[in-house]
Amino acid sequence: MDSAKGKVRNYKDLLVWQKSHHLALQILKLSRKVKRKQENFFIWGQVLRAAFSVPANIVEGYYSHRGKNYLSKLEVARGEAGETEYWLFVLFEIADLDEMTYNALVGECKQVILMLSAIIKKLS
Asked: Which CATH superfamily hosts domain 14-123?
């Protein structure tokens, strides 16, 4: 971002994209450490799909040149962030995530949801 003028030159300049991308990468790295069993394979796939869908929808919206399509993509991203939070809860409940890791990831997820909500409100 051009800090002097505050212009966003690229989707990577968007703080919400940075945070959501970082969260998705954290979840991917965790998934590589967890022993995959038949019972949890589907759940890890779901959380990864949802987590990476958040920054992907932000990028897709960014390149849709604003307007209603941009707003729609941000709403989808917010929904995917909510879904990510749910799947993290399931992973915690089945003991694939410890409490500290779960709380940290959910905290980041909630930050992304709040940021997306603020942008959506501002653009509506």
From this structure: 23S rRNA-intervening sequence (1.20.1440.60)
